[in-house]
Amino acid sequence: MNRNMEANVTTPSDGEDEEEYVLLDLDAVTNLVNIPPNAKYILTGLDTLNPLLIIDDKLKLIGEYEETIGTCIAFTEQDKPVVHEESGPSDANLFSGTRIIDSNQPPTKQVKPLCKLHKVLKFKISPDSEIQSETTKVAK
Questions:
Q1: Which of 54, 102, 130, 131 is the most buried (most CB within 10 A)?
Q2: What is the CATH number assigned to the segment(s) 4-76+112-139?
Q3: Are 130 and 59 within 8 A, CB to CB?
Q4: Using the 8-state DSSP alphabet, how is residue 71 labeled?
């Protein structure tokens, strides 16, 4: 399961706000622990070399930035209903030019670009995290 989150970082530069998007990569952590989809989290230190991510007040993760190579774009995915457009001569079809939503078809996915990414923030479990000590006990 790929667990990624986005963070929008605003940094001041010459009086103007400049937005920078960062992808939070939790792939290395999800193999070791189960993170609930709606878990509470605190993300601090985005302007430091090693930001901290604390999940559910017990799982402490340490991040490390990696620059992206080339253009990295994040996309968003939305359900879109299947639409049929009626066409043909108007005398043969009373609904010519009308769009009809087909409720028998499952919605399709529509993908749109969301933002460009300049950095990826990869996380690993902190040595002093409660979860780290629990996984160490299990391994022994």
A1: 131
A2: 2.60.40
A3: yes
A4: E
